[in-house]
Amino acid sequence: MKPVTLLLITALAAASMAQPMHAQQVSIREQLIARGAPAEFADQVAAVVAAAEAEALPTEPLVSKALEGWAKRGRVPPERVLAVLSQTQASLRLGREVTLGAGFDPPPGAVVAAAAGALGRGISREQVLDIMTAAPEPAGAATGLTVAAALAAQGLDRPAAVKAVRDAFRAGRSPDEVLEFPSAVTGLRAHGESLADVARRILEGGGLPMPSQQGMGPQAGRPPGVPGSQPGQGSAKKKGQSNKP
Amino acid sequence: MRRVALLGAILAVSSSPTTAQGLSVLVGGVQARYADSVSGTAGLLSVRLSGSAPQLAGILEAGFSKFASGEWVSQLSSYGTGVVSLGSGIGLGLAVGGDVNYTEGSLWSGQVSAGPLTAFTSGSFLATLGASVGTIRSITDSAFATATLNARVRQQLRAGVALGIGASGVAADTLRYADLTLEFTHTGPRTKLSLFGGIRSGDLVDDPWGQAHFELAVTARAKIEAAVGRYPSDLAGFTDGLFATVGVRVGITRSPRLGGATPPVEVEPLESGRVRVTFRFPGKAERLEIAGDWNGWIPLLLERHGGDSWSVELALPPGIHRYSLVVDGETWTVPAGVPTEPDDFGGEVALLVVR
After folding, report:
1. Which residue of B21, B238, B245 is in closest CB contact with A231?
2. B262 close contact with A: CB closer than 8 A
3. What is the DSSP secondary-structure string of A15-84?
4. How many Cβ contacts (< 8 angstroms) between chains A and B?
5. Nearest to residue B277, comparing CAs of B292, B267, B291?
6. pLDDT tens per residue across span B265-288
7. Which residues on A lie below 8 Å from B237 (Cβ)?
8. For position A202, what pLDDT does the model report?
């Protein structure tokens, strides 16, 4: 990619983040064209985004998905991108509905997007509501739903993924701590645990490891397993006597 | 006076119990020189069993050493913690530890201790405070109670580099002494270097001590471990001494991580909402870029730091961010060993967690 083109794309991306929602529709079209997308494809994407905005749906997931799909155009045809956008739009509609049902009115865009992501990973409406009501605040609901969706995407059983997040919130753990769960699952898998083991561990109430367990560091003294010589000849002595108490 | 030189080696002393998983065997040798100028050389066989369960972590190690002079010694040590998160990075738990040393000729010692442990973690900072009581049976047949109070703080300075300081106070029968320890750890893609040492004040007088421990991963299951240094005297009755060990540790279980292996991605918080993200990417790449949902999937060049270490500074808020790596401007991929999910386009994206 030429530097000038890259600069133009970067400027457009920055501008789109700073502009209001309506202007973003224009931005996504221009961004795609700046990246070499055919005008017809850019128009189709812009139309989807405009329709979502008209439905009061968050458009950021659609914009991001369109740009991701086009960036991967080497293996992703435009038709596939449009199909994914259509699915994402449907998930966003459902996510908005569930978010409203949970009492978020008006529904925050981040929560709607997270709910859509969770629903798109096979998590049921009831389970989404479970997490929303257990979360300490709206931003926490978005985090919890995103984490649950990530756990489900990692292959964890949906009930286990939801239980991990919901129980963590109910136990008073912060959204910040819940963010560690996907990495914890990856770590357990790397240590040889099967997904079934991880799911069972969660469903049996064990939860996932917390970062506060880590980092004990060295102890003062000889390394464990490295014994020394018998006393009496060495320099280690209590002042004026042996080191025996 | 009968003199027995007892040798062994557990080299990954600074590894957290929760990062060492599975069953492994160490075969090696050790050379030691004690405070009274007596030296010994021995072969070593050691078996380590470690594991973690939710909120629990433990390690059990058994070693057998046989000296060139014919004497042998066996050792058994264990350490375990249970920590419950109270939220907001605070944990509360219990630490239990103990060991037994037995030398040919019925000379043995042992100790056991237990006590509460509190931990606080924030980003790359960790602080622990613990207290314990226990009992020791020394090699001179005496037995006495002990009480210990210890505190430690550890800060990750940058990816793979950490610095820590600790302090402890010990009361054992009529003895009172305090230890101040420093530790430095550098973890590379296949290596880990730990430097630590300390000074002691109070009744159990000793010179400053220091040790260097080095690990080199040869394969996913095998690594070379070497250590050299000096250790101080202890309450079990052993004097101080110098030691050097080298051995090969082989993992018996499937775990590829034998102690301090480096995670494939590390996120280090910087100022003004920025983070430095460091990847271990062992694949062939002349140029590596990262593209994610935070900037419209525009590939951004990573800086190479030699070997398979690459890093980049990003302005990312806390949350889960989706990303891919782009190899040589063509291949979209994700690092091995990180959380991933389908990208809805028939591939997958990686998840970057920023706290």
Report:
1. B238
2. no
3. HHHHS-HHHHHHHHHHHHHHTT--HHHHHHHHHHHHHHHHTT---HHHHHHHHHHHHTTTT--HHHHHHH
4. 334
5. B267
6. 888 888 788 888 988 888 788 999
7. 230-231, 243-244
8. 66
What does chain A come to in residues? 245
Of B251, B274, B297, the residue at which a domain comes to its end is B251
Per-residue pLDDT tens for B174-196?
Answer: 889 898 989 898 866 567 888 98
Whether A3 and chain B come into contact, CB under 8 Å, resolves to no
Q: What is the mean pLDDT of residues A127-154?
A: 89
When mean pLDDT is compared across A135-149, B134-148, B254-268, the lowest value belongs to B254-268
CATH of the domain at B119: 2.40.160.40
pLDDT at site B255: 42
Query: A238 in a domain, yes or no?
Result: no
CA dist A66 and A13 (Å) reads 13
Q: Is residue B289 part of a domain?
A: yes
State mean pLDDT over B127-150.
89
Domain assignment of residue A51, yes or no: yes
Query: How near does any CA of chain A get to the CA of B222, in Å?
Result: 15
Domain count, chain B: 2
Q: Do A192 and B243 touch (CB under 8 A)?
A: no
Judgement on whether residues A91 and A146 belong to the same structural domain of the protein: no
A75 and B346 in contact by Cβ < 8 A? yes
User: Domain for residue B3, yes or no?
Assistant: no
Q: Which domain holds residue A166?
A: 121-209
Q: Which of A70-74, A125-129, B201-205 has the lowest mean pLDDT?
A: B201-205
Name the residue range of residue B342's domain: 265-354
Q: Is residue A73 part of a domain?
A: yes
ipTM over 0.85: no
Helix (H/G/I), strand (E/B), else coil: B299: coil
Domain co-membership, B34 together with B106? yes
Average pLDDT over residues B52-65: 74
Q: Tell me, yes or no, if B313 comes closer than 8 A to chain A by beta carbon.
A: no
pTM over 0.80: no
Same domain (yes/no): B100, B235: yes
Fill in the amino acid letter for B120: F
Q: Determine contact: A121 vs chain B, CB below 8 A.
A: yes
Domain shared by A75 and A126, yes or no = no
